[in-house]
Amino acid sequence: MNAPATSQPERIQQLQETVSASRLNTFSQCRLKFFFRYVLKIPKAKTPALHVGTTLHSTLKAWNKARWKEQPLTTTQLHQEFAKAWVESQEQERVAWEGDETDQMSTAWRLLETYIRECPVKLDEKPDAVEVTVETDLSAHGLPRLIGVIDLVQSGRIVDYKTSSTTPNPATAAHLNEVQTSVYATLYRDATSRTEEGLELHHLVKLKAPKIVITPLPPMSSEQQTRLFRIMESYQHGLDVRDWVPSPGMGCLSCEFFNECRQWS
Asked: What pLDDT shows up at residue 124?
């Protein structure tokens, strides 16, 4: 027997009870896009870029877990994990392929090889945590529960993996990812009762000659946490008043909900 469908008010209530970095970012980018994705849950095929990113994340998770167990993967084992993740990701979500899938798979593998070869993390240094799900109760601040999955914690530093088709600028990368890094820092501090040593963005850049760009960041400042809490307040208020107004801009050109947005009223 199928479970009864969740009504719109029920979905909105659930979204108000917990919040993640991805939801906050989507809501800040465009509230109508948030409505389509999280409230109406309009299904969309996954883009090739997102599929590559998901596959690399899954493979790096396996690589880091093996390091945590002090049983590092060989290149052959790593490729097996990569091939498995590539297939499983497509089984979970259809991919809207553009061009040859085989070429894109080859590019993704070369990118992964480059990361493993040039990775600044010492292979014999055991991680503190790998792909850990964390949540914290912020009701004392009048805010919902904050949830997130941290890719890697290494020697007290929070590491987040990114894939990109262009070389990131350090200042721009820090700004664009501040919500996410602040979320992770807040979760880390609540879970460990310690302040992180810092944060790192590990960009795997998909160029003809793949490269790795590491952006080190200092621990979250009190000003950054205040900004995060204000963004969360805006999120709560927006859901309270059902504010689904769109934010037209250049980002619309790559938005999966472009056609739905054109019909919005």
From this structure: 78
